[in-house]
Amino acid sequence: MEKKSERRPITLAASLAGLRLIGAGAVLGLALTVPAAPAQADPPRPPATTQDTVEES
């Protein structure tokens, strides 16, 4: 006796929806990782001067 593996047919709409979900996850992952690298590489900025708030007489 041979057992046949039950294979359910997958519709084209379901497979495309899965691919879209995988693609969205990949884009989200890249969007979260790419901006983090340059932000850490920036040197610390000196505090802003307060020349604009000094009143001139």
From TrEMBL:
Entry superkingdom: Bacteria
Protein name: Uncharacterized protein
Bias kind Low complexity: ranges: 48-57
Disordered: region residues: 35-57
